[in-house]
Each structure stands twice: as C-alpha cells, then as structure tokens.
Fold Phosphoribosyl-AMP cyclohydrolase.
Amino acid sequence: MNADNPAGAAARRFSEDAARAFADAVAFDDRGLVPAIAQQHDTGEVLMLAWMNRDAVIATLTGGRVTYWSRSRQAMWRKGDTSGHVQDLVDARIDCDGDTLLLRIRQTGPACHTGAHSCFYRTAGDAGPRPM
C-alpha cells in the first residue's frame, strides 16, 4: 500500500476491505503479533518499534492514526491519545517475508515515551550505550 501523501495532507485511510486484505498478507507470530517500525516519512528517520496485532493493523489502515498493541497492558493503544504525540499514517509497507511492517508516518511531538524525538537516541560506546 504505497501512498502519495505529502506533508500536511490528511492521514492516509484505506477501506475496510483493503485493510483486511493487507492484514491477511501479514505473517503474525504465535502470539498474533508483528513488529512495526515507525519511520518519519519525509526524513527516513526511524522513530520507534512497537507491536501490532491484526486489529491494530486494520484500525491503523482504516483510521489513519497509528494504533499499536501493548504487550504489557494486553490492550490496543492509539499513539498520541494520552500524550498528544500523534502518528498519522502516510504509507504502510510489508517486508518480503510478511513478518515486519514499516509504517511511514507523520509524527507530531516526540515519538519516545521518554520525551526523546526518537526511541533510538542511544549509541554504542566504549562503556556501553551512551546518549547521542
């Protein structure tokens, strides 16, 4: 599902049938989950990795706002509902094996729950991970 969705445009939404067809192509693991990488659509920066179940995939595609599955809470959560740090869907892609999703998004505010712009703000250092 490749979208031509310029910055500032409304979030990309798909029909229920299209969303279900996309979800049918996903190879969910034995827990019914698939990793989803959130990437800023205009810069290519990887912002975070989270998990989605089938319902979260369909909700994201039909609603245009990225929805994940919380493994700790065992519940769906729509990014930004409590923080205001919304992820609008620009494009959804599936890898060659069907077992990983790439969500090209338009991020509002920081993506990381720590308040960092990206969850990948630490790099390998001589004494272990260090902030970039």
